[in-house]
Amino acid sequence: MPGTLLGGRYRIIGLLGRGGMGEVYRATDLTLGQSVALKFLPEEASRNQRLLERFHGEVRVARLVSHPNVCRVYDIGEIEGAPFISMEYVDGEDLSSLLTRIGRLPADKALETSRKLCAGLAAAHDRGVIHRDLKPQNIMINKRGEVVIMDFGLAAIADQLSGAEVRNGTPAYMAPEQLKGANVTARSDIYALGLVLYELFTGKRPYEATSVQQLLDLQESAHLHNMTTLAADIDPGVEKTIRRCLDPDPERRPATPLAVAAALPGGDPLAAALAAGETPSPEMVAAAGKVEGMQRKWAILCLGLTVAFMLAQIPVRARRTAMYQVPLENSPDVLAHISRGVAADFGYTRKPADSALSMQHRTDLVNYLGSLPGRGDWARWYTAEAPVISVYRESPAPLDATPYGVVTSNNPPPLTTGMVSVVLDGHGHLLEFSGVPYAAGSPGVGPEAVFRLAGFDIARFTETTPQQLPVRPFDMWRAWTGPHPVLPDTDVQVEAASWKGQISRVRVSLRKTPASPKADVASGTAASGNGGGTNAGALIGRLMEAVGTFFVVLLAMRADLRGAWRIGVATFLLSALDWLGRMHPIASDAMVDQVFSSGADWLLRSTALFLIYMALEPAVRARWPHSIVTWNRVLSGRWNDPQVASDVLIGAAVGSGMIGLLKGVSFLSGWASNPVNLDTAISFGEGFLSWVGGHAANVYSGISSGLLIFLTIFGLRAILRRDLAAALCAAVVFTAIQGEVHFTPERAPLVAVYLIIYGLLMFILLRNGLVATIAALFFANSSRTVLLGGNWTSWYVPAGLASLVLLLAIAVWAFRSALGGRELIGDDV
Question: Which among 133, 189, 247, 491 is annotated as catalytic?
Answer without folding.
Answer: 133
